[in-house]
Design brief:
The structure holds two protein chains of two kinds.
Chain A lengths: L1 E5 L10 H13 L2 E5 L8 H7 L1 H17 L4 E3 L3 H16 L1 H11 L8 E3 L1 H9 L3 H4 L7 E5 L8 H4 L9 H8 L3 E2 L18 H17 L4 E4 L2 H8 L2 H5 L10 E3 H9 L33 H5 L1
Helix pairs in contact in A: 1-13, 2-3, 3-4, 4-5
Chain B lengths: L1 H9 L3 H9 L11 H5 L10 H9 L3 H8 L3 H4 L5 H5 L6 H14 L8 H17 L4 H12 L9 H6 L13 H16 L2
Classes of the chains: A alpha/beta, B mainly alpha.
Amino acid sequence: MIKIAYFPGCSLEGSSKEYNESLLAVSKEFEIQLEEVHDWNCCGATAAHNLNKVLSISLPARTLALAEKQGFSEILVPCAACYSRLLTAYNELNKDAALLEKVKEILEIDFSAKVKPFTVIDFIQKHIQPKLKEKVKKPLNAKIACYYGCLLVRPPKLVEVERYEDPLMMESIVKELGATPLDWAFKTECCGAGLSVSRTSTVGKLCSKILDDALSRGATMFAVACPMCQSNLDMRRRNANVFLNEKADAPVLFITQLIGLALGLDKKELGLQRHFVPFNLEIFDKPIPKETLGKSKKVEEV
Amino acid sequence: MHDQNIVEALRPVLKHKVKENTEEDIMLCYQCGKCSAGCPLIDEMDIAPNQILRMLQTEIPELEEKVLKSLAIWLCLACEQCYSRCPKDVDLPKIMDYLRAESIRRDLVNPKAKEILAFHKSFLDSVRLTGKLYEIGLIAGYKMRTMHLLQDVNVAPTMYFNGKLNLFPSQVKNKKAIKRIFEKALREEENK
């Protein structure tokens, strides 16, 4: 049993519970124990870095410090926004000794900021993917648009992703699940994230562009690895549909839910009943379009 | 006239303050326009991202004020598209963070950004009180600040029935620590 430090973040306790449920269910199948950092707090998200720099470093730094005190050297952060905040704090504290001193004084915890955050995609690539193929029981018959959004791939200097304009990490994962990844143009466009409540129609417009591009190329569903991407494409679907000629009904699943389905796990165990855009297993019985617009060799090479 | 020159020389130039606080050099920008070309919200902004940098380069006080009064600095999603494509590595989202904070300090926040600011403040209120984001508390605070009382009444029941809404907040045990972080960070910010 491998033990990994885990920072679920606020969304995974609330509006994106199914991400937490499916991540834990899949980890269990691969005999990995995710251990929550004791007494973790909110990363501060967009609000903190929009308004106050010291706060935007100190809030995630507390979680990094607690993880360090609890004996971990790296930490799994499933939410892309939390990941971005924790990684920014990690980087800033490691390059600026004066800032580290200041934050130590604010937190009143002595720590060295050596706990490095990593994403669910990193986690899958390292711990799940090598053993994935042999464990797939129900190959997925679907054409999947892998949607990354912003913070999993940007800024490239921070997250160290090479193909940040056209990432293929999730594509290679869904391929091993038996599905066909879609080659499309909007995989790293922004969903509107933090404006979901304060400017819902703006978010609807941005999401409609993402849905339109994927669906016009024949996607049957979406794979995401960020709770905000999921909730904007799912919960705000009504606001996006306003901008579309045809109502979009393709479900948006977390990559961990897709893995769980291919492993043959129960729909409920993966929290699939929680989505706004309903998900039915019959979706895998429908034939998928073979040819796609803008088909490129790059996806085939994965 | 002489006095006015001295006043002018002592006036803090915004681009210098940006440099001091973010280490970002606005003068590096040579107006290629890639930031604006890739910005997902360009068509809703009152000033384009590349224009914001140009206006700050001029050091003209009226233009600096126009930037701090703009809606654009509040619409920026920090999606990092501009920064990842900038040939001069100008971290525009980081500059936007500073401009927003400065806009609050100088009391120049654009009236149309009221909702966005209300959301950020309600979000931080929730974190300050519980150490985590409490979604119902956040929305209640946001509604009181904006008086948009009926917003999202159509999604809230589904969220609840799908088990996505917690009626009671999940809280950090060591709330004193969170309170202290907020107090000290706010003091730091005021001293800038």
